[in-house]
Amino acid sequence: PTTAENLRFCKHHDWANRGHEWCQGYGGIERAWEPAVWPRIGAFLPAGHVLELGPGYGAWTDYLRPLARRMTLVDLAPNCIAACRQRFAHLRHLEYHVNDGRSLPMVAAASIDAVVSCDSLVHAGRDALAGYLPEIARVLKPGGTAFLHHSNLCDLRVAAGGEVGNPHWRAK
Questions:
Q1: Dihedral sign, CA of 84, 98, 171, 158?
Q2: In what order do the strands lie in the sheet with 47-53?
Q3: CB under 8 Å to 132, separation ≥6 — which residues?
Q4: What would the pLDDT profile of 29-84 be if each residue is shown by its tens digit?
Q5: 61 close to 83: Cβ distance less than 8 angstroms
Q6: Residue 137: its H or E element
Q7: Under 8 Å between Cβ of 65 and 128
Q8: End-to-end distance of the chain based on CA atoms, in angstroms?
Q9: ω before 167 within 30° of 0 (cis)?
Q10: pLDDT tens readout for residues 81-115
C-alpha cells in the first residue's frame, strides 16, 4: 500500500487490541518477542536512544521502552501517536512525533543508537522505504543498528538501490 493508504488504514483501524492482533500466529506478542524479535535485536539493546518507527498503539513499545534511556516514537498516524502519548504519559524518557510516513526531520543526525520497527513497515511500499532508508542512515550514530521488519523484499531492494533478484544483495 501507499503511504496515504496506510494512513487511512491507521485512522480507521479498530485498535482495541493495540496491535497485538498481528502476532496471533505466534500465539500473541509475548510469544513473538522471545523467539523472533529478541534474538535479532538483543545484542544491540539496551541502548541510549532508540527510535521506534510506526509504533501504532505501542504494542512493541512495551518491550522496547525499558531497554532505552531515551526513546523517540514516530508514526504517520496522529491517532497512534496520541494513543501512545496517553498510554505512556508517566514515562519521561519517551518523546512522540507525527511524520509523513517517509522522513524523520524531527530527529537529529547521528543521534540514534538503534532503530526498531516491528509489524509496521510490513505494510509499507516503495515510497516509504525509499524515504526511510536514507533517513535511517542519517540519524543513526556510527555503529548504530536498525531492525526493520519488512515483507516486501523486492521493494526493499529497489528502494535501497539494490539489484532485484540478486540473492547476495546487501544494503549500501
A1: positive
A2: 94-98, 68-75, 47-53, 112-117, 140-148
A3: 53, 102, 103, 104, 121, 124
A4: 777 788 888 999 999 999 999 999 999 899 899 999 999 999 999 999 999 999 99
A5: no
A6: helix 126-139
A7: no
A8: 25
A9: no
A10: 999 999 999 999 999 999 999 999 999 999 999 99
